[in-house]
Design brief:
11 helices, alpha/beta, seven-stranded mixed β-sheet, 346 residues, four-stranded mixed β-sheet
Length: 346
């Protein structure tokens, strides 16, 4: 297992590896929720990750306290990153979870550095920071506290319901900086959910998160992702999903068609052969030119979802844009002993 090469891209040099083999502790827990999962606890040297310049992402920095994900979504684009550790990108990605146990402390130190200029930090963009492991390791409260105390803008994308545990911290952070929260719900079809996202909370439970956040004055958008061709893209399916999103009180809905990068493509194809063998050739044609569905198809789905959103009273969001939580008229800074000076924000 190549721990010395663990980084956010396969090109990370060994001399700036995030940690070495002597920093790894492997654990298993004999409890129903963690049975069959192995955790590799590491002490990271860095937690702020710069997004490669060629990326399509609209942000420059991410924080990923976990690697691998027990959500086990068969289409997850992050599967390829497990190959950098010589770990399997299929079942291994779902069951071999890397946990950066010192993430809050490292982030606190990095945010306090004179070199850090307070850039927006995105979380949940690689694997879910509120996946099942977070219930045991509780890394996010410390991470959110560090961001709040430095008034550093951030966003979270999640399929997890555990985010509600940190509702108070999110509210406090929103009083001093820009906070964006999105929940991922690509479809409401129960059969599709059980087979393609077997480790996630149900779509309805995720929409309950949207509803609860809204009831506490926190805007929450929905990333309608992925829209799965031939399985979740029928007009009545799109209508049911957008209606449910609107009824949950989402501030916005942004559709994203399934994309199949190397690592995810092979695992998804195996799943497709088992569950929908008649669709294999159609997928080969649709994704024959690369990881993304044809532009005409993406545009058609986007148009349909936006029309439905307008019908149900919600509007599209710019992908990746933070959704600011309304501030009180006279916000007060959190009372933190020895709070550092606020950095320049974007």
């Amino acid at each position: 297992m190549r721990w010395d090469n663990l980084g956010d891209t396969p090109a990370v040099p060994a001399d700036i590896a995030l940690f070495g083999t002597d920093a790894v502790t492997t654990r298993t827990f004999d409890t129903p929720e963690f049975r069959g999962i192995t955790f590799h606890e590491v002490r990271a040297r860095s937690i702020l990750n710069r997004v490669p310049g060629a990326s399509r992402m609209p942000f420059e920095w991410t924080v990923n306290p976990y690697r691998g994900c027990s959500h086990a979504c068969v289409y997850c684009f992050a599967r390829k990153t497990h190959s950098y550790l010589d770990l399997d990108t299929g079942l291994g990605f779902d069951s071999q979870i890397v946990v950066k146990i010192n993430a809050p402390e490292v982030l606190t130190r990095q945010l306090a550095s004179s070199r850090w200029q307070g850039a927006h930090v995105a979380m949940g963009t690689n694997v879910d920071c509120y996946q099942r492991a977070e219930g045991r390791y509780r890394l996010m409260p410390g991470i959110l506290t560090a961001l709040r105390d430095r008034a550093n803008p951030f966003s979270i994308l999640t399929k997890g319901t555990l985010i509600l545990r940190d509702l108070e911290l999110l509210t406090q952070a929103a009083q001093v900086t820009e906070v964006g929260i999105s929940v991922s719900v690509g479809f409401t079809d129960q059969e599709l959910w059980r087979t393609v996202e077997p480790g996630t909370p149900s779509p309805q439970r995720r929409l309950d998160v949207v509803r609860t956040l809204g009831e506490h004055g926190i805007d929450c958008g929905v990333l309608m992702a992925p829209v799965v061709p031939f399985l979740g893209d029928r007009p009545e399916q799109l209508r049911d999903t957008v209606r449910a999103i609107a009824e949950a009180g989402a501030s916005s809905v942004t559709p994203l068609v399934l994309h199949l990068r190397p690592g995810a493509r092979e695992w998804f194809t195996q799943w497709l052969r088992r569950h929908h063998p008649g669709l294999v050739r159609r997928y080969e044609r649709m994704y024959g030119d690369g990881a993304y569905a044809p532009t005409w198809y993406q545009r058609r789905i986007t148009r349909q979802v936006h029309e439905l959103a307008a019908e149900f009273g919600i509007g599209p969001a710019h992908r990746g844009a933070p959704r600011r939580i309304p501030l009180p008229e006279a916000p007060e800074a959190p009372e933190v002993a020895g709070a550092p000076e606020q950095l320049t924000l974007l």
